[in-house]
Amino acid sequence: MALRMSTLFLRTLREDPADAELPGHKLLVRAGYIRRAAPGIYTWLPLGLKVRAKVEAIIREEMDAIGAQEVQFPALLPREPYEASNRWTEYGPNLFRLKDRRDNDMLLGPTHEEMFCLTVKDMYSSYKDLPLSLYQIQNKYRDEARPRAGILRGREFIMKDSYSFDINEAGLQKSYDAHRDAYTKIFNRLGFEYVIVHADAGAMGGSASEEFLAVSDLGEDTFVRDDAGYAANVEAVEVPQAPAVEVTAGPAHVEDTPDTPTIETLVAALNANHPREDGRSWTAADTLKNVLVMLAHPDGTREPLAVGLPGDREVDPKRLETKVAPAEIEPFEESDFKRYPMLAKGYIGPGVLGEEKASGIRYLLDPSVAEGSAWVTGADEHGKHVLDLVYGRDFTADGTVQAAQLREGDLGPNGRALTLARGVEMGHIFQLGTKYAEALGLKVLDENGKLVTVTMGSYGVGVTRAVGMIAEDNLDDIGLVWPREVAPADVHVVATGKDDAVFLKAAEIVNELEAQGLEVLYDDRLKVSPGVKFKDAELIGVPTILVLGKGLADGTVELKDRRSGERRDVPVEGAVTEVLREVKGEVAGA
Amino acid sequence: MALRMSTLFLRTLREDPADAELPGHKLLVRAGYIRRAAPGIYTWLPLGLKVRAKVEAIIREEMDAIGAQEVQFPALLPREPYEASNRWTEYGPNLFRLKDRRDNDMLLGPTHEEMFCLTVKDMYSSYKDLPLSLYQIQNKYRDEARPRAGILRGREFIMKDSYSFDINEAGLQKSYDAHRDAYTKIFNRLGFEYVIVHADAGAMGGSASEEFLAVSDLGEDTFVRDDAGYAANVEAVEVPQAPAVEVTAGPAHVEDTPDTPTIETLVAALNANHPREDGRSWTAADTLKNVLVMLAHPDGTREPLAVGLPGDREVDPKRLETKVAPAEIEPFEESDFKRYPMLAKGYIGPGVLGEEKASGIRYLLDPSVAEGSAWVTGADEHGKHVLDLVYGRDFTADGTVQAAQLREGDLGPNGRALTLARGVEMGHIFQLGTKYAEALGLKVLDENGKLVTVTMGSYGVGVTRAVGMIAEDNLDDIGLVWPREVAPADVHVVATGKDDAVFLKAAEIVNELEAQGLEVLYDDRLKVSPGVKFKDAELIGVPTILVLGKGLADGTVELKDRRSGERRDVPVEGAVTEVLREVKGEVAGA
Predict the structure, then answer these.
(1) pTM, whole model, 2 decimals?
(2) Domain extents in chain A
(3) Its GO biological process terms (chains A, B) (predicted)?
């Protein structure tokens, strides 16, 4: 049944909504696809629900094609399984927690590893039952601290999550590869640019993990890639150790550098009072910065850590945190400094850092610090720095750590220059291994009658986020421009003017289009001007627009391509055929 | 793609699950449709999800047919709108409440009157935008005190809820009638016996309300009907006032009736010590029982109420509560008796009851008490009763109230005898009127440019409950027997034995059936005995079963009708045609 604009629950807005920041999000609200119900929580209006259903259908199709079976778990869950996996605690304030009338702790599911694991445990007991892949398309909940990106990052959102169960690592690899292929097909169909990046798997106890990132400046995630196809999010990049260089510096010497607690003041003072012999200026890159942080361990203990890196770089907290997980990074406070009086704030150097040194604080170097390189760094005394301090000759560290913010041009693991870009995580595939199965006791009998722990994978696609990303990536100044496969309708028929004949003919064409299996949005409003109708059609963004108006007297109607803006008159008798050609042609060619 | 038993996520159980009480619920668990995740919270396994999707599709079809538009609101909602409608408080412990990370109160939606009302208010402003009907199919939440009936009464469940918006009462009546028709069509297709009953609308502030009850002894709701088509739930029945009778009793007289604080002891004492002149025995029906309760008003105040009714009847708390709403009924405690020393517990009579009497307690009579009738009742003194006390001659009351439990044979509003039955509420349609629109300020401009409050209706169907009810109403000793339109598959193909030829032929037939558009469940398990396969097929309950086995050598296969148990051999070449005839024939005839 055609959607008729005269009755459709829709009110397009000419002004941007106050609560939207991203261009696509603004258009989704203005064009009547979604509406905010509470911060980070959205209502899906008829047009939005149509698009969402199409995205879901694509995902369902590709999941079914790899033999994954659809189920649906509850969204409201008991605490116990999440306690067993430790996620009840680990999720922190992102988890919506509540109590029922009997004071039982419950939660709104963020993802369902535990529940799937327990159900498989309950039902299956033999290697013969495996492999198994299950999925669901369902409301998920995460209490985001700053839900500002519309449906790109909601607090209630729809996700397709799946879980694979295999008898061993080889089986997991197959299930993982099947999901990777299915996700590739899904994202190829959805209509935005994406890249598959290596992701960090360490914290989840798994062995491999990749993310499907929509390439977009709107993204909160930074990733890197090289020109040979390598791509990874910054947490997962392991940059190579800078190769050793020949020592050319003379002996280290301590100099007075009063009032130089920052890199800027130090470089200025060096250039003013300690000019280099070769005439070059000192830069921040010549200095070695030693950054102190506190590691907060899950058991509640805190431990200091010092990271040495060139003065022109910053520590990337996300990258560092990945390496020290499950510990989290907290600032090194004034009160901490008081407990380590040997640390001369602003002038801290390798002289006191290291497990064997005066502070006893573990000291790790970023791999950009090369053996044999000479540095200006703190002399562990206020107002003094040491120059020509050579790594490997004059000081050592307890190891290295991937800690520095990456920069355009840094060499990646393949030895090629990296470029940086931003992305939005649209999918995540994950070799979980046995972490959850061990915590919840999911074992089956193997071929030899021996109990073995099941090996799991977990895989997610953000469904509502995908709708948001498609919108962000398919718009122009005047509205949305949906890719055909997810558009709320195949064609938008607009009847203009006040001539009954136009509306009669339009209704006839609408019926014919529907008889051909097309979905039609029909603007049958009587007292609305052509200008408003055109503006609405452009805003709503159905890919093909068919306009009936004055030209009908001469036997012509106008066919508009929303994306290119191209218009052409076609004879009214051929209109249905022309529309079909547009719709099917593009789908076939997609 | 056929569901194959060899890989289907399914483990049928031979034993009843410990956590299920109802026969259909036990079978749904045993046959692998659902599984309990927590009390009142269920997981939908692949077969269950198929049935549920078919029920949803039927509902969607009938809602679309009346022009209702599908939307989806969030399940996690802010407190404020529910505060404005007072439901935040009224819902009491049935509402799941929680706080987000910023300490905002939130709730899991039980129904969405408030949210729909606010969204329409936000988008629409004129009578020209009406009428409007919106619906959603969505997870709902109610923290049931005793979630013991499986998916018939879950704490997380799926409901189709719709809301209509009209400019006036006449419009509401049309929207209501359209929903009533759609619901009739839906329930006619779902495969269980149902009845439409008048329901009480008073508490919700609306003007009319009907329930669609599945007729079932499993039901928690009692309803009545007469042989002229009248039906109502007990809360909504208004039984007529018993007509006045001629006074035949002599003057009232007080008698000693020591140790008779209960109706039983009183009747025994009367028969022993005060035989009737006409020789008939005294029965409980000759006594007038005066029951005291406390009304708890929403503002926190409590008020006593006395209800007089024949001693052979009990007060029906649900019926009485409907009449005193929004007050709730609480017991009249010992401490309350202390505050009313004129009440002689066990011997309370109309002598002290009534707003004008010593106690000042409002005194209402059940309509079964006829003017002119004579009663034995308390004499307001311990050990004493008054006999031949005539209503209207010797005592009066402050009014009447529909309070007594109804009995088979009681006369209904049409003056016809009522029969009682039990039912499960499957749907509810409700003329809300302006209650929510007023509370939330939903007004539009009428034809004269005047702001008028919108008139709303709300309508609900329990989707997961419907699946449960279909199961309860379609089963036998050996398993489920799905009605065709909601069965998880059209046909269950069972290949038995170890002969490759059987499995090859079965696979071929499965393909042919699918090519004809049928949904097939295919038992392709290699190492499972025919007996187990037949038991599983009977338990799962697909309406048509096609068995391939030894007979194939002679060119025959067996076609079984799950409901009738009828089996017949058909030639293998004609098997697909026969199956099609079974499937289509019954659907066409349904």
Answers:
(1) 0.91
(2) 49-235+420-465, 253-400, 489-589
(3) prolyl-tRNA aminoacylation
